[in-house]
Specification:
Layout: E1 2-9, H1 13-24, E2 29-32, E3 47-49, H2 53-63, H3 67-74, E4 75-81, E5 91-96, H4 98-110, E6 115-118, E7 124-128, E8 131-135, E9 140-148, E10 157-160, E11 163-166, H5 179-182, E12 192-196, E13 199-201, E14 211-213, E15 238-242, H6 245-253, H7 276-282, E16 290-295, E17 302-306, H8 314-321, E18 332-334, E19 337-341, E20 361-363, H9 373-391, H10 405-414, H11 440-449, H12 456-477, E21 479-480, H13 484-492, E22 502-503, H14 504-509, H15 515-525, H16 532-562, H17 568-573, H18 579-588, H19 593-598, H20 604-614
Parallel strand pairs: 1-2, 1-9, 2-6, 9-20
Antiparallel strand pairs: 3-5, 4-5, 7-8, 8-9, 10-11, 10-19, 12-19, 13-17, 13-18, 14-15, 15-16, 16-17, 21-22
Helix pairs in contact: 1-9, 2-9, 2-11, 3-4, 6-7, 6-8, 11-12, 12-16, 15-16
Bound molecules: flavin-adenine dinucleotide.
Length: 615
């Protein structure tokens, strides 16, 4: 029997990250994945990043992950989201060529000698002495740790109108229920669903009546090891059009044929990523919804109409699409559909994404009830790190919600039972002004350092932090002293008046100035050379320093209590807590006071008792 340290079930976005990071710890790693489904393939819109998600991609990169590198290589259209709202909440979104993206994933993984990719369907996972036996139709392998990342495949069922077929996504077989392990692992007891729009033949679209959105050349690549502004692939445009009254009338007239409204689909869909049917009935007064026509690749014939995800019957899909400006003659190459699948109860996982009752078994990605490539990849890397550290007999690795979006997501996931698909967005983060894209390397430095690795990334990060500290010092200490010459200098550069001696950081903070451009210019004028990423981080950090300090002291008060460890077993035995609360605590097993606070149904009296007596 082949032996591995860590075996990943599934080669999607979660699985690839788990394998990639585990291999960095020098372990023997296997990915067992369904044949015919490429590594890190994109069954929905091939876009990486977005609001809140761009931060996740950069956090994955700073931890040593792959997603940012793949997006940089396969990116064909870049955008900066929330640009008008200022640096603090900006995010990068990159449309990728989905074939190139998956090809690069295959290429990167194939170059790592300690990852073996086994292209077979896993039929069972059994916990055995000191590990697990993973079985396919013709082989069994032994692994010390297993990470399950089966995405939408677990007992998957696809719906297009009245048609129903078993499958994990279009043209892909489903995963069997893996009852050998799922008889011991609790699923949510309800299924989740997600959907995707029809894919359109790009030669049948009239782009001339749509608004063009060219790639933004100022958007910065995700990986800190990529040149920030270089492009590896040819850039193309996306186009914007809109639905109208006729489009929505057709959808509303076919309500009884919609699987999500006629009872055929029982699964719960993502509230924040509604299908066009959802929009038609949720907003009856609105008929104009954005439809972004987005390329799926440079040499791919299909385009993705973002905003019209649907599981309506095929002929209805074609009918409503042809009412949209520019799509009057459109042909569909692949019809839209919805997929229903089983989901793990994440309240049974710890903060390292390990199933508490089966040590050594980890879950990550869509199987945990999340939606989105970035959410999947963010969990994949954490599950991979923890499985690896556990093989090495080291402590669990946990990211704090105070300084990472991945930390926010994982704490949200494990601290409560999910009743709908989970999606990351900035409002979930209490520390938004600090947890930005530009300062990801500063935020993640000590986390990555704790792995004790010495790769190219670690060498880069050490130098980055050295320069960061140095530049921060320069900005705090350099003074523009009043003189005719400096006054003249301020005026020539449109810096405003110089009435008193002014520190460089005070200049950068001036409201009328762009902090990054100002610092860049000042360094250039003084002949000082710093890494451009460092300059940006320091400039934006200085600009928001005051706001962050204020937000921090408020958060600190709240967080001090929330981050304190509690002993849930002690609570379950306590005579001062109600039976119902104890049941919820027993179910969720909160490790911190913050996690206890998040459990639905925990009474204020219980919280007061715990705060006063237990911690
Ligand atoms: C129809 C559809 C619509 C979607 N819509 C959206 C959307 O609107 N917005 C959004 O953000 N995201 C959407 N997604 C979700 C996005 O695709 C996922 O979030 C992301 O792919 C999840 O990554 P993952 O690694 O968890 O799982 P996946 O990418 O699904 O990968 C799972 C992997 O596990 C393998 N596998 C499964 N079972 C087995 C087994 N028994 N043995 C061996 N291998 C196995 C599969 O082959 C696959 O490689 C959609 C997905 C689908 C299918």
């Amino acid at each position: 029997m082949k032996q591995f340290d860590v075996t990943i079930i599934g080669g999607g976005h979660a699985g690839v990250e788990a394998a990639w990071i585990s291999a960095q710890f020098g372990l023997k790693v296997a990915i067992v994945t369904i044949p015919g489904v490429g590594l890190a393939s994109a069954p929905c819109n091939p876009a990486v990043g977005g609001v809140g998600k761009g931060q996740v991609v950069r956090e994955i990169d700073a931890l040593g992950g792959l997603m940012g590198k793949l997006a940089d290589k396969a990116g064909i259209q870049y955008r900066i989201l929330n640009e008008s709202k200022g640096y603090a909440v900006q995010s990068t979104r990159v449309q990728v060529d989905k074939e190139l993206y998956s090809q690069y994933a295959e290429e990167y993984v194939s170059q790592v000698t300690n990852i073996e990719v086994i292209r077979k369907l896993v039929l069972s996972i059994v916990d055995a002495d000191g590990g697990f036996i993973v079985t396919t139709d013709d082989e069994a392998i032994f692994s010390k740790k297993v990470v399950v990342t089966t995405g939408t495949f677990l007992n998957g069922k696809l719906h297009t109108g009245e048609e129903q077929v078993e499958g994990g996504r279009v043209d892909c077989q489903k995963s069997p229920g893996l009852s050998s392990i799922f008889s011991k692992v609790e699923t949510l007891g309800k299924r989740f669903k997600t959907g995707t729009p029809a894919r359109l033949d790009k030669a049948t679209i009239d782009y001339s009546v749509m608004e063009e959105q060219a790639s933004d050349e100022r958007a910065r690549n995700f990986s800190c090891l990529s040149d920030p502004l270089s492009r590896n692939s040819r850039q193309v445009s996306c186009f914007l059009t809109r639905t109208n009254q006729t489009t929505l009338d057709i959808i509303r007239d076919n309500k009884e044929r919609s699987p999500i409204f006629n009872g055929q689909i029982q699964g719960i869909g993502p509230r924040y990523c509604p299908s066009i049917e959802d929009k038609a009935f949720r907003y009856p007064e609105r008929n104009s919804h954005h439809v972004f026509i987005e390329p799926e690749g440079l040499d791919i014939q299909t385009v993705y109409p973002n905003g019209v995800s649907t599981s309506l019957p095929k002929e209805v899909q074609l009918e409503f699409l042809r009412t949209i400006d520019g799509l009057e003659n459109v042909e569909i190459l692949v019809y839209g559909y919805a997929v229903e699948y089983d989901v793990v109860d994440t309240s049974k996982l710890n903060l390292g994404l390990e199933y508490i009752d089966i040590p050594g078994l980890y879950f990550a990605g869509q199987v945990n009830g999340t939606s989105g490539y970035e959410e999947a990849a963010g969990q994949g890397i954490i599950a991979g790190i923890n499985a690896s550290l556990s093989v090495l007999g080291r402590e669990k690795f946990v990211l704090s919600r105070d300084d990472t979006y991945i930390g926010v997501m994982i704490e949200d996931l494990v601290s409560s039972k999910r009743d709908e698909p989970y999606r990351l967005f900035t409002a979930r983060n209490e520390n938004r002004l600090y947890v930005r894209e530009d300062n990801t390397l500063v935020r993640l430095y000590n986390y990555r350092r704790s792995f004790g690795l010495n790769d190219t990334l670690d060498i880069y990060l050490d130098e980055y932090i050295r320069q960061y500290d140095l530049l921060w010092n320069v900005c705090k200490k350099f003074v523009y002293r009043i003189s005719a010459e400096t006054k003249q200098y301020f005026s020539e550069n449109n810096y405003g008046p110089l009435d008193t001696n002014t520190f460089m950081f005070e200049l950068i903070k001036r409201s009328q100035l762009d902090p990054y451009e100002t610092l860049k210019r000042e360094l250039l004028n003084k002949g000082l050379l710093f890494d451009d990423n460092v300059v940006r981080t320091v400039a934006i950090g200085i600009k928001y320093e005051g706001y962050i300090q204020r937000a921090n002291s408020e958060n600190e008060r709240v967080n001090r209590l929330a981050s304190m460890n509690i002993d849930w077993q002690k609570l379950v035995e306590s005579g001062n807590i109600s039976y119902e609360c104890k049941q919820r605590i027993k179910e969720i097993r909160p490790e911190t006071f913050g996690a206890l606070q998040k459990i639905d149904g925990i009474r204020p009296a219980t919280l007061a008792y715990v705060a006063g007596n237990i911690i």
